[in-house]
Amino acid sequence: MTEPSSDRHGTSPPWPPSDPAIQKVFEGMLEDGSWGRYHGPHCAHLRQKLADLHQSEFVTLCSSGTSAVELALRAAGVSDGDEVIMAAYDYKANFANVVLLGATPVLTDVKQGFPVPDPQQIREALTDRTRAIICSHLHGCFAPVSEIRELAAQHDVPVVEDVCQSPGAIHDGVLAGTAGDISVFSFGGSKLLTAGRGGAVVTRSETFHQRIRLYTQRGNDAYPLSEMQAAVLCPQLEQLKRCHETRRERVRQIVEGLGDCKEFSPVLNHAEEDLPAFYKLAFLLDHDSREEFCSRCQRAGAAVFEGFPGLHLIHAKRRFRALGDLPHATALHNNLVMLHHPVLLQDAHVIQPLVTAIKLAAERI
Ligand SMILES: Cc1ncc(COP(=O)(O)O)c(C=O)c1O
Predict the structure, then answer these.
(1) Atom 5 of ligand 1 has which residue's CA nearest to it?
(2) Could you say which of 22, 114, 138, 262 has the lowest number of CB atoms within 10 Å?
(3) Average pLDDT for consecutive 10-residue bins of the chain (365 residues)?
(4) Is 3.30.420.40 the CATH classification of the domain at 239-363?
C-alpha cells in the first residue's frame, strides 16, 4: 500500500488541502446515500465533464492512471510480440504495462535537457512491429504530441497521450489530452485532480472505446471508479483553471528567485502563451549529488525529490530494445530533481523562504 501523500512528501503542505466544496459534496452524499451505490449521478457527471472538456465522446473511468495506460494499450491492440515506443525517461508503470501485455518497450532518447520524447528518435524507432507510442507530458513540460501523432499516423500507429501529470494544460492552443489518439488521466492521491485513487481514458475513437468496454465490462465493472471518487473530482475540475493560474504564478516567482543560482537550472519548455500544469517543477543540477541535494532541501523544508530513474538503467536489457545509448535520458536520471506541487497553491509569502532553502542546499554541496 502507498502511504498517504502527506507522509511520502513529508516537507509538503498536506494534500489534498481542505476545501469547502468537497465538504459540501460529502454532506450531499450522506444525505442522498450515493456514497454507497454501485451506480449514480456522480460518475455520469464526471464522464460528461471530461468528454465536454476534451471534446471527445468516449470516456472510461477506471481505478488508476496505471490501469488507464493498460486500457489504452489494450485499446490500441497491443499484445504478444508487438513493440511500444516510449521515452527512456518516463513513469515506471508505463514500461511495466507494456511488458504485462507481452510487448517490448522500445526506449528512445528524450530531447536534450527535457523529460519529453524526441520525435526524430521516435521516427527512427518505428518498425512494422510498432503497435503504439506512449507520449507523456512530465513535470510541467509539454511532450510534442501533435508532431509525433503526425508521423505515427503515416504508419497507422496510435499515440497514447499520458496526461496524468498535466490535466488542463494548454500548449499551442491545444488542450493536453486532445492531441493524442487515446489519452490517460490519473486521480491518484498526490495528483492535481485527486480522489485518492482513480483514472480515466478519453478517446474520440469508437473502436478504441469498444475494445476497452469489451475488456472492462464483465457483467460487472472490472476496473471501477466509485461514485464517491467521482463526486469529489467534479468540483476539482471546476477549480482546475484557477488553481493552475496560482501554481504558474508561484513557479514564476520561484524561477525568478532562483535565477542567479548557478548550480541548477529550471526545466521548462513552454512558450509565453502556453498554460502549463505543474504537478512537479523540475530542475537540472550541474553535478551528480542529487541525493544529497534532495536530503538537504527536505531538511530545510523544501519538498524536492529525485526525478524518475532512466528506464534503461533499472530494467534488464532483455526486457526492452533501446535506440542507441540514450545519453540525454541518462543525464536526467543523474541530474533531475523536482519540487512537489502542494506548495505552489500556498500564499506568495512562502516562496521566498522556499527559494532560500533551495539555494542554501545547493551552496553546501
Ligand atoms: C506520467 C504518469 N503516468 C501514469 C501514472 C500512474 O498513475 P496512478 O498513480 O494513478 O496509477 C503516473 C503517476 O504518478 C504518472 O506520473
Answers:
(1) 65
(2) 262
(3) 42 92 98 95 98 98 98 98 98 98 98 98 98 98 98 98 98 98 98 98 98 97 98 98 98 96 93 98 91 94 96 98 98 97 97 94 82
(4) no
